C-alpha cells in the first residue's frame, strides 16, 4: 500500500490538503465548552412551604411524593430532607438511565399528586442536574443609592434577563435577590373597635372591590359589550376609597380604618455584593455553544447595560471560562514548545534542517485532521478532550521520529530513496500499529468505569484514539512522501555524516555502560527486578486525592448560625462580620438565606449563608479567611463555619453530596424519629465517640403553641377562628391580587411588628356571645429543642451519624448489636462504599487492559513469552513516576494518573520497536553469518540497542523538554497539568533507561530461549 501511495505523490498531497480544509471547516462548527455535556443521573425536587415545620413538610408533602416516585424506572436511591419551610428530595438513578425520559416521568408523577398536596402549596420544582447547569459567569446588579429596589428587580427580570437570553449560546439566565412590590394593608385595630368593626370587614371590602365578572356581557342593539366592575382597584388610593361597612350598616372609607401603601414583599433571602444589597444573574450555556465566542458577547452586553442603565452598577464574578482558557493555553504551549524542542533535539541528533521541517509539517497536520473525528463522534472541544489531544502529542512526535529514523537508516544501507521510504515504513508499520493499540488497550477500558468518571474518560479516549490513528496515517503516508521530496537529491555519503558529534558521544557512553551491564547480567537483571517492588512501595507514601491542589485566590465560606433566627438577623450578622473584616479582599458576594435560583439544588435554609471572596494572593486568602472565621465564631459561638476553595466546574462535578461513612437507623416500632431525650440517652452508649450527628439528629430551639380546649369551649371560641387570627398575625395572609397584563400585585394584611407574646396579648378573637377575647387566654406556648430536619429514604424516616474513624467498618458488628437492643433497623451508607466499588471496578478494568495488552503483543510477536518483556517494563516506569511524585511532594490524583497512561504508551512503544528490531536482526544474521545461536543473540541485542538508541532518546528527550516549561509556569492551567508532567518525566527518565538496558537483559533471560527459527516465524 505504501508503495502504491508513494507512486502518486500529487494525489496523496491533495488528499491531505482536502482533509485539512474540511477539518478547518468542521473545527469552526465544533462546540467549545468547559466540560462535556454529561447527564448527572440525579433529579432534585424542591418544596417551598412557608411557615411549616419539618414534621409538617415530611408528613403532608415529602412522604406523598416519595411514595409516588418509588415506581420510577432505574431509580437507585431516594433521599429526602425536610427543614423549616423547605424540603428537598434527591433522586439518584442508575448511570445510563435516559435522564430526559426520567425528568418527564418525575414531572408527570408530581402533576398526578398535586391535588393531594396541601392547598395553596406552590407546585414542587423539579431540577435536572447537568454539567451545563453550572453557571459560566455571575453578573452582579447593584442599585445605586435612592433607586427603588423593586424597579431594579423588574429591570433584571424583564429586560436584562431577556437580553442575555437572546445572546447566541445562552440557554438559561437565573436570578437571585429579587424583590417584588406588593400592597400592604395595616388595620387600625383601635379605630376598628371604636366603629364596631373587625379586620374581617376590611378584608371583605377589599375582596369585593377587586371582584371580576368573568364572561358577563350585555346587548345594546346590534352591539355586545362585556361588563367590568367599576369598583375594580389598581392602586393604594383606589383601595383607601373603598367603603367598609359593619354589621349595623355604618359605612366609612377604608382609608379611615387602615393604612394602605406599596411595600416590598417580605423575603426569605438576600444577595449582597460586598456590603451592598443587589441581585445576581447567573448565565448558563447551551451544550452546543462555544464558550470562547459566548463570553465576549456577555461582556459586550454588560458594556451596553452600563451605558443604558446608569442608575445601576454592574460587575462580574466567578468567570468559569478561565479554566477553559487555561486548557487551551496549555495545549498551545505544548504545541509551541513541543515543536521548538522537537526542532532543537532533531538538530542536535541529526544535524540537518530537513527532518525538523518534516516534523513541523506533520505535527499540526495530525492535530487539525483529528478534529474530523471530533465532529463524527459529536465530541466538543473541552478541557477533557483537549487534555486527550495533549496526551497524544507525545506519541505523535514519537511515531514521526521513528519512521524518519528508520527511512534514514535504510538509505544508509544503500537502498534507493524510493525503496528506502517503502521498506522503512513497512518495517516499523506493524510495530507502530501494535504500540498504538497497546496504548489504547491501557486507556480505553477506563471508559467502562461507572458514573461520571467513565463519561469523562469517553471524551478523552476518543480524542486520544483520534490523534493516534491520524498520526499513524500521517507517519505511514505523508512523512515518507515529504522525506522523498526533501531528500531526493541527498547522496548516501551525505546521509552517513548526519550524526552529530553530540550523538556520537552519547553512543560511545551507551556502548560502554552496555558492556559493563552485560558483563554481570545476572546481577543487573536482579537489580532491575528488585527496583520494581521498592519503587511501587513509594505509592504508599503518596497522598491520594481527586484533583490536584490548584492555587486559587478565591474562597467560599459556608455559615450555619445554628439558631432559629430570621433572615434579617442572618443578614445583619453577616454584614457586621464583613464590615469588621475590612478591605482585605478584592471582591465578595453573599447569598443569605433561601436562594431564588431555579437550578439551585443545595439546601435552602433561612439560617444559612455563603460568602464568596476573591483575594489578591494566596497569603492574603489564608490570612483573611482565618480572620473571618475568628470574627464569626467569637461573636456567635453557636455558628458552624467551613472555609473551602471556591468550587470551579470540575469541583462541582466531582464533589460528592453524601457523607463518607454514615450509619442510618429507623425505629421499627413507630416509623418516626426517636424522641430527643431518648435518643440522647441512647447515643451515650453508642459504640464509638468518633461521630458527628447527621441532619436528622441536629437540634434547634422552637416555640410550640398549645390550645386550651376547655376554655375555648367555655367562651365559644372556635379552633378555626384562632387559626385564622394566628395566620394573620404570623403568616403570609394574602387578601387578594391585582392582575394587569401578566403582572400580579398581591394585597396583603400586615400585622404589627412586635414580640409574639405581646401580639398574643394585643390580638383578639370573637366568641359566640359577640365579645372579643385576647388570644393569650387560649394559647399556651413552650420553648423546646426540636429536630432541625426530618430525613428519609426509600425505607422511610431515618436518623444517622457520620463516623470519623480511620477504619469505620471496625465498629459495624458493635453498632448492629447496639441497634438490635433498641429495636432499630440499621444500615450503612456513604461515599466509602462507592469508592470501594470504583476501586474494584478499576482493578478489574486494569486487569482487562493488561490482558488486552498481552493479547495484542502476542499477536504482534507471534509469541506467548516475548510480551512479558514489555509488561515487565510497565512497573519500572510506574515506579519511576512514583519516585518523582514523592520527591516533588505531588499527590496521586486524576492528572498524575493520566500522566502515567501517557508515559506507559511511550514506554510500550520503545519496548515493542526494540524487541521487533532484535527479532529481525536475529533472522538477518542467521541467514548471512555462520555464528552460533548465542553469538547471534548477543550481536542482535547489541546492534538493536545501537539502532534504536537515537529514536528512543529523541522521543524521550523531546517529550520531557516539551513538558518541562509547565513545571516552571504559574497559574490555574499549570497547576492542573503539573502532576501529569511529573508523572511523565519520572516515568520516561526510568523508562528510557529501561528501554536501553532492561529490555535486552529481559530478552536475554526470557526471550532468548526462543530459537532463531521461531524468531523467523515471529517476524514473518
Question: What name does CATH use for the topology of the largest domain?
Answer: Multidrug efflux transporter AcrB transmembrane fold
Strand content: 15-25%
Number of domains: 5
CATH architecture assignment name of the largest domain: Up-down Bundle
Helix percent band: 40-55%
Mean pLDDT: 81
Counting helices, strands and paired strands, the structural category is: alpha+beta
GO cellular component, one term: plasma membrane
Protein name: Multidrug efflux pump subunit AcrB
Keywords: Membrane, Transmembrane, Transmembrane helix
Transmembrane segments: 12-30, 331-350, 357-377, 383-404, 436-458, 464-487, 523-542, 839-857, 869-888, 894-913, 952-974, 980-1006
What's the structural blueprint in terms of helices and strands?
Blueprint: H1 2-6, H2 9-29, E1 39-48, H3 54-69, E2 75-82, E3 86-93, H4 99-112, E4 125-130, E5 137-143, H5 149-165, E6 170-176, E7 181-187, H6 189-194, H7 199-209, E8 217-220, E9 223-226, H8 236-240, E10 243-245, E11 251-253, E12 258-264, E13 269-273, E14 276-277, E15 279-285, H9 291-308, E16 312-317, H10 321-350, H11 354-376, H12 383-412, H13 417-443, H14 452-487, H15 492-496, H16 501-519, H17 521-537, E17 554-560, H18 567-581, E18 587-593, E19 608-614, H19 618-635, E20 640-645, H20 649-654, E21 662-667, H21 676-683, E22 691-693, E23 699-707, H22 709-715, H23 719-730, E24 734-740, E25 743-749, H24 756-762, E26 764-766, E27 772-774, E28 779-787, E29 790-793, E30 796-803, H25 812-821, E31 824-829, H26 831-861, H27 866-887, H28 894-928, H29 933-967, H30 972-1005, H31 1012-1019
Helix pairs in contact: 2-11, 10-11, 10-12, 10-29, 10-30, 11-12, 11-14, 12-13, 12-14, 12-28, 12-29, 13-14, 13-26, 13-28, 16-29, 17-27, 18-19, 26-27, 27-28, 27-30, 28-29, 28-30, 28-31, 29-30
Amino acid at each position: 500500500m505504501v508503495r502504491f501511495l508513494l507512486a502518486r505523490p500529487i494525489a496523496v498531497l491533495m488528499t491531505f490538503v482536502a482533509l485539512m480544509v474540511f477539518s478547518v471547516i468542521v473545527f469552526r462548527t465544533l462546540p467549545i465548552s468547559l466540560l462535556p455535556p454529561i447527564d448527572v443521573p440525579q433529579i432534585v425536587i424542591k418544596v417551598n412551604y412557608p411557615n411549616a415545620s419539618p414534621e409538617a413538610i415530611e408528613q403532608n408533602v415529602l412522604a406523598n411524593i416519595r411514595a409516588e416516585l418509588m415506581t420510577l424506572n432505574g431509580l437507585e436511591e431516594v433521599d429526602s430532607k425536610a427543614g423549616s419551610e423547605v424540603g428537598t428530595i434527591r433522586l439518584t438513578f442508575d448511570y445510563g438511565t435516559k435522564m430526559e425520559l426520567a425528568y418527564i416521568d418525575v414531572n408527570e408523577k408530581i402533576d398526578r399528586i398535586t391535588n393531594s398536596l396541601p392547598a395553596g402549596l406552590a407546585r414542587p420544582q423539579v431540577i435536572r442536574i447537568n454539567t451545563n447547569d453550572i453557571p459560566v459567569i455571575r453578573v452582579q446588579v447593584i442599585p445605586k443609592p435612592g433607586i427603588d429596589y423593586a424597579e431594579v428587580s423588574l429591570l433584571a427580570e424583564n429586560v436584562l434577563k431577556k437580553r442575555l437570553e437572546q445572546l447566541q449560546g445562552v440557554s438559561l439566565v437565573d436570578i437571585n435577590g429579587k424583590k417584588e412590590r406588593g400592597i400592604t394593608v395595616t388595620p387600625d385595630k383601635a379605630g376598628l373597635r371604636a366603629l364596631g368593626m373587625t379586620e374581617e370587614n376590611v378584608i371583605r371590602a377589599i375582596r369585593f372591590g377587586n371582584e371580576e365578572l368573568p364572561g358577563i356581557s350585555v346587548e345594546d342593539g346590534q352591539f355586545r359589550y362585556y361588563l367590568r366592575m367599576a369598583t375594580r382597584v389598581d392602586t393604594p388610593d383606589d383601595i383607601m376609597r373603598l367603603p367598609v361597612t359593619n354589621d349595623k350598616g355604618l359605612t366609612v372609607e377604608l382609608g379611615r380604618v387602615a393604612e394602605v401603601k406599596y411595600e416590598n414583599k417580605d423575603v426569605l433571602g438576600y444577595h449582597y455584593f460586598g456590603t451592598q444589597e443587589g441581585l445576581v444573574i447567573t448565565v448558563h450555556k447551551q451544550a452546543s455553544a462555544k464558550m470562547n465566542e459566548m463570553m465576549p458577547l456577555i461582556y459586550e452586553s454588560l458594556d451596553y447595560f452600563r451605558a443604558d442603565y446608569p442608575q445601576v452598577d454592574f460587575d462580574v464574578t466567578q468567570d468559569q471560562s478561565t479554566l477553559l482558557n487555561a486548557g487551551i493555553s496549555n495545549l498551545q504551549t505544548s504545541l509551541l514548545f513541543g515543536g521548538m524542542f522537537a526542532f532543537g533535539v532533531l538538530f542536535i541528533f541529526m544535524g540537518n534542517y530537513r527532518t525538523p521541517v518534516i516534523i513541523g509539517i506533520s505535527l499540526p497536520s495530525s492535530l487539525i485532521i483529528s478534529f474530523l473525528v471530533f465532529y463524527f463522534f459529536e465530541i466538543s472541544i473541552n478541557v477533557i478532550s483537549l487534555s486527550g489531544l495533549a496526551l497524544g502529542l507525545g506519541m505523535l512526535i514519537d511515531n514521526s521520529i521513528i519512521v524518519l529514523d528508520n527511512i534514514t537508516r535504510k538509505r544508509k544501507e544503500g537502498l534507493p530513496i524510493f525503496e528506502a521510504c517503502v521498506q522503512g515504513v513497512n518495517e516499523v508499520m506493524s510495530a507502530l500499529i501494535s504500540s498504538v493499540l497497546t496504548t489504547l488497550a491501557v486507556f480505553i477500558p477506563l471508559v467502562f468505569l461507572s458514573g461520571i468518571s467513565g463519561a469523562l474518560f469517553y471524551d478523552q479516549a476518543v480524542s486520544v484514539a483520534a490523534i493516534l490513528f491520524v498520526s499513524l496515517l500521517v507517519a505511514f503516508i505523508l512523512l515518507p512522501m515529504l522525506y522523498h521530496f526533501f531528500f531526493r537529491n541527498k547522496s548516501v555519503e551525505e546521509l552517513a555524516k548526519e550524526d552529530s558529534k553530540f550523538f556520537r558521544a552519547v553512543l560511545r557512553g551507551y556502548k560502554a555502560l552496555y558492556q559493563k551491564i552485560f558483563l554481570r547480567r545476572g546481577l543487573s537483571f536482579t537489580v532491575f527486578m528488585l527496583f520494581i517492588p521498592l519503587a511501587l512501595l513509594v505509592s504508599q507514601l503518596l497522598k491520594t486525592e481527586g484533583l490536584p491542589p490548584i492555587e486559587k485566590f478565591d474562597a467560599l465560606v459556608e455559615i450555619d448560625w445554628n439558631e432559629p433566627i430570621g433572615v434579617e438577623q442572618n443578614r445583619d450578622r453577616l454584614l457586621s462580620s464583613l464590615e469588621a473584616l475590612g478591605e482585605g479582599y478584592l471582591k465578595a458576594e453573599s447569598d443569605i438565606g433561601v436562594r431564588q435560583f431555579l437550578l439551585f439544588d443545595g439546601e435552602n435554609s433561612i439560617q444559612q449563608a455563603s460568602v464568596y471572596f476573591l483575594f489578591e494572593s494566596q497569603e492574603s486568602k489564608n490570612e483573611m479567611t482565618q480572620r473571618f472565621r475568628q470574627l464569626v465564631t467569637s461573636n456567635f459561638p453557636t455558628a458552624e463555619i467551613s472555609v473551602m476553595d471556591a468550587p470551579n466546574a470540575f469541583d462541582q462535578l466531582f464533589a460528592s453530596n453524601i457523607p463518607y461513612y454514615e450509619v442510618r437507623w429507623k425505629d421499627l416500632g413507630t416509623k418516626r424519629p426517636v424522641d430527643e431525650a431518648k435518643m440522647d440517652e441512647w447515643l451515650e452508649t453508642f459504640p464509638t465517640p468518633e461521630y458527628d450527628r447527621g441532619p436528622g439528629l441536629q437540634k434547634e430551639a422552637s416555640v410550640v403553641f398549645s390550645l386550651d380546649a376547655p376554655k375555648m369551649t367555655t367562651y365559644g371560641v372556635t379552633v378555626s377562628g384562632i387559626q385564622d387570627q394566628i395566620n394573620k398575625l404570623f403568616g403570609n395572609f394574602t387578601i387578594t391580587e391585582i392582575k394587569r397584563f401578566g403582572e400580579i400585585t398581591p394585597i396583603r394584611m400586615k400585622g404589627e411588628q412586635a414580640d409574639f407574646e405581646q401580639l398574643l396579648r394585643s390580638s383578639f378573637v370573637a366568641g359566640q356571645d359577640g365579645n372579643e377575647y385576647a388570644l393569650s387566654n387560649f394559647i399556651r406556648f413552650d420553648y423546646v429543642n426540636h429536630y432541625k430536619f426530618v430525613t428519609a429514604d426509600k425505607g422511610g424516616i431515618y436518623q444517622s451519624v457520620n463516623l470519623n474513624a480511620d477504619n469505620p467498618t471496625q465498629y459495624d458488628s458493635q453498632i448492629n448489636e447496639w441497634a438490635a437492643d433498641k429495636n432499630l433497623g440499621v444500615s450503612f451508607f456513604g461515599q466509602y462504599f462507592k469508592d470501594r466499588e470504583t476501586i474494584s471496578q478499576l482493578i478489574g478494568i486494569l486487569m482487562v487492559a493488561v490482558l488486552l495488552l498481552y493479547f495484542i503483543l502476542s499477536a504482534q510477536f507471534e509469541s506467548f513469552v516475548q510480551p512479558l518483556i514489555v509488561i515487565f517494563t510497565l512497573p519500572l516506569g510506574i515506579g519511576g513516576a512514583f519516585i518523582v511524585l514523592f520527591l516533588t511532594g505531588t499527590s496521586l490524583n486524576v492528572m498524575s494518573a493520566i500522566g502515567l497512561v501517557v508515559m506507559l504508551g511511550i514506554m510500550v512503544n520503545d519496548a515493542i520497536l526494540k524487541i521487533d528490531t532484535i527479532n529481525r536482526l536475529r533472522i538477518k544474521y542467521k541467514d548471512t553469518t555462520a555464528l552460533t545461536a548465542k553469538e547471534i543473540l548477543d550481536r542482535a541485542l547489541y546492534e538493536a540497542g545501537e539502532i534504536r538508541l537515537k529514536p528512543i532518546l529523541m522521543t524521550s528527550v523531546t517529550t520531557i523538554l516539551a513538558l518541562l516549561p509547565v513545571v516552571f509556569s504559574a497559574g490555574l492551567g499549570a497547576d492542573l497539568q503539573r502532576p501529569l508532567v511529573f508523572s511523565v518525566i519520572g516515568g520516561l527518565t526510568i523508562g528510557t533507561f529501561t528501554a536501553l538496558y532492561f529490555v535486552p537483559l529481559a530478552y536475554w533471560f526470557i526471550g532468548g530461549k526462543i530459537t532463531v527459527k521461531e524468531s523467523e516465524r515471529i517476524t514473518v
